Description:
83 residues, alpha+beta, three-stranded mixed sheet, 25% helix
Amino acid sequence: MSHIFSIDVVKAAFIRSDGECECIANNHKHAGRCNNMVIYNMRGLNLPGGWEAYRQSSDRPLDVGNCRILCMNCYKASLQDNR
Length: 83
Ligand SMILES: [Zn+2]
Ligand SMILES: [Zn+2]
């Protein structure tokens, strides 16, 4: 589930993120965009700077527009939201 995006898509999304969590979920602890720092080589790590590529909409294609770079807190919270 976490590695469904091609690496090119993830890299492009990560560049767009500016190294900050792109989460805008209004039911998380952050107000507005999360903007937690994420570090490219820390993908999948449950540590500050860790992150994962999240598929925003399951009925949209696996392209950059549907890929959100989320810090691990937001990634896990978003998976919960979608249950
Ligand atoms: Zn976040
Ligand atoms: Zn969030």
